[in-house]
C-alpha cells in the first residue's frame, strides 16, 4: 500500500507528465535500448521511430498517476495493455528494468525539480503499478496455457497457404509445425507473429487480427503490405515478398479485448482499409451461430483494387436472414462498383444503424475518429473499437463503450 504522502506527491506531479511526458519517455526508450538492446526483440521498432510508443507510454503513466489512489478506474486500460504484453511475451523480470530507466529519465528531464522525495515517491508508485500489470498478465498467461491446445509463449507455425485478397492484402493460413489443433478465440482478437528477417540484428514482432472465425487446426491472418509509410513495414513486406508456403514463423496465442459479444441485438461492423480483418471473423461467426441476427457490414476503401473480401462478404450476406452490406469507395475505378462514393458519413450510417445497434469499428485513426464521433451524435450507446498499434490516448479512450 502507498502512503498518503506518496499518493499526494505523485498526484501533484502528474501535471508535469502531461507537459513533459513524451520528452521523458523518449529519453527513457533511448537509454533503455542503449543499456538493454535485447529488448528490441520485443518492441516494435517502427512505432519507436514514429514516436507512437513514446506517446502511448506517456499517456499510460499520466493516467496511472492521476488515478494512483484508485487504480481500479483504469483497470480496463490495464487489461487492454496486458493483452498486448501477454501476446508479445512481456515477463515480470522486464518490469524492474523498465522502472529503473523510467525514474532515470524523469530525473534527467526534470533535473533539480525531481527531488529525491519525488523520485522515491514515483519509485514506490511504479512498484504498485507494475505489480498490478504483472498479476493481470500472469492470469492471462495461465488462462491461455490452460485452454485446449493452449500454450504460454510463442510456438513455431508453418505457412500452409497464401491467398491474395486485394492489391495490398494477402491472407496467411498458419498451422502448428508439430501438427494438431489450435486454441479457439473470440472473433475480433489478434495474435503476434515473430519473424527473423535476413540482415536484421533483432527479431521483429507484429500483431495481426485473426481474419476468420475459429478453425480447428489453423489460424488465418490477413496482412496489408505497408509500402507507403515511412519507415516501410518490415514485417508486412517480409511476409508478402519472402515468406512462402512452408516457411516457419513463430506465433503467440490469440489475445485482445476487442471481440464480438454474444447477443441478438442488431449489430453493425464498420471498417476502413485493413480494419476489415477483425470484422471478417465477426461476420463469419454471426453467419455460423446467429444467422437471424440483424447485421450491417459497412466498409470503406480508397477503390475496389484495395478492397479485400468483397466476394466473401457478399456470400456471407446470402447466409444471413437479415443482413445488408454497404461499400464506400473514395475514388472508385468503375462507376457501379460501390454503393457510395466518398466517405462514410451520417447519411450513410443512418441507413444501417440506429440507437440500439451494437457497433464495432476498426480502421485508420482519422476514419475511426470521424465514425465514432458521428455514432455518438446519433445517440448510439454501444460502440466497440480497436486501434492497430499503440492506443491514442489511454486516459480518455476505451475499447468498450463511448
Distance between the termini: 32 Å
At CATH's second level, what is the architecture of the largest domain?
Answer: Orthogonal Bundle
Number of discrete helical segments: 11
Structural class: alpha/beta
Output the helix-strand order. Answer: HHHHHHEEEEEHEEHEHEEHEHE
Shape summary: globular
Main-sheet strand order equals 4-3-6-1-2-5
Keywords: Oxidoreductase
EC number: 1.14.12.17
Organism: Rossellomorea vietnamensis
Protein name: NO-inducible flavohemoprotein
What does this molecule look like?
The protein is an alpha/beta fold and 402 residues long. It has three domains: 4-145, Globin-like; 155-251, Beta Barrel (Elongation Factor Tu (Ef-tu), domain 3); 267-386, Rossmann fold (3-Layer(aba) Sandwich), CATH 3.40.50.80. The protein has eleven helices and twelve strands. Helix 11 links the parallel strand 11 (358-362) and strand 12. This is NO-inducible flavohemoprotein. Its EC number is 1.14.12.17.
Amino acid at each position: 500500500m502507498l502512503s498518503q504522502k506518496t499518493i499526494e506527491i505523485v498526484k501533484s506531479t502528474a501535471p508535469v507528465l502531461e507537459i513533459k511526458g513524451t520528452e521523458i519517455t523518449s529519453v527513457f526508450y533511448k537509454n533503455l535500448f542503449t543499456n538493454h538492446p535485447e529488448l528490441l526483440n520485443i518492441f516494435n521498432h517502427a512505432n519507436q521511430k514514429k514516436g507512437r510508443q513514446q506517446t502511448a507510454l506517456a499517456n499510460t503513466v499520466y493516467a496511472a498517476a492521476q488515478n494512483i489512489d484508485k487504480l481500479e478506474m483504469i483497470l480496463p486500460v490495464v487489461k487492454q495493455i496486458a493483452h498486448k504484453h501477454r501476446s508479445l511475451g512481456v515477463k515480470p523480470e522486464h518490469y524492474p528494468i523498465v522502472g529503473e530507466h523510467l525514474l532515470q529519465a524523469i530525473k534527467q528531464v526534470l533535473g533539480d525539480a525531481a527531488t529525491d522525495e519525488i523520485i522515491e515517491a514515483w519509485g514506490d508508485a511504479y512498484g504498485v503499478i507494475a505489480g498490478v500489470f504483472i498479476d493481470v498478465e500472469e492470469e492471462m498467461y495461465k488462462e491461455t496455457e490452460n485452454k485446449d491446445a493452449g500454450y504460454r509463449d510463442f510456438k513455431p507455425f508453418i505457412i500452409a497457404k497464401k491467398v491474395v485478397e486485394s492489391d495490398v492484402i494477402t491472407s496467411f493460413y498458419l498451422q502448428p509445425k508439430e501438427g494438431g489443433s489450435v486454441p479457439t478465440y473470440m472473433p475480433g482478437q489478434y495474435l503476434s507473429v515473430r519473424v527473423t528477417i535476413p540482415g536484421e540484428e533483432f527479431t521483429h514482432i507484429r500483431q495481426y487480427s485473426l481474419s476468420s472465425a475459429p478453425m480447428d487446426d489453423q489460424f488465418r491472418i490477413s496482412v496489408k503490405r505497408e509500402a507507403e509509410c515511412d519507415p516501410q513495414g518490415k514485417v508486412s513486406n517480409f511476409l508478402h515478398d519472402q515468406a512462402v508456403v512452408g516457411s516457419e514463423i513463430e506465433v503467440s496465442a490469440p489475445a485482445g479485448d476487442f471481440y464480438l459479444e454474444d447477443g441478438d441485438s442488431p449489430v453493425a461492423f464498420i471498417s476502413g482499409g485493413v480494419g476489415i480483418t477483425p470484422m471478417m471473423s465477426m461476420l463469419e461467426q454471426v453467419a455460423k451461430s446467429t444467422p437471424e441476427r440483424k447485421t450491417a457490414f459497412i466498409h470503406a476503401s480508397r477503390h475496389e483494387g484495395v478492397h479485400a473480401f468483397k466476394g466473401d462478404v457478399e456470400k456471407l450476406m446470402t447466409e444471413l436472414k437479415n443482413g445488408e452490406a454497404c461499400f464506400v469507395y473514395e475514388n472508385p475505378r468503375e462507376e457501379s462498383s460501390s454503393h457510395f462514393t466518398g466517405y462514410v458519413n451520417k447519411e450513410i450510417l443512418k441507413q444501417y444503424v440506429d440507437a440500439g445497434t451494437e457497433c464495432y469499428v476498426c480502421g485508420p485513426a482519422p476514419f475511426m475518429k470521424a465514425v465514432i464521433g458521428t455514432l455518438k451524435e446519433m445517440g448510439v450507446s454501444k460502440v466497440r473499437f480497436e486501434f492497430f498499434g499503440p492506443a491514442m490516448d489511454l486516459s480518455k479512450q476505451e475499447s468498450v463503450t463511448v
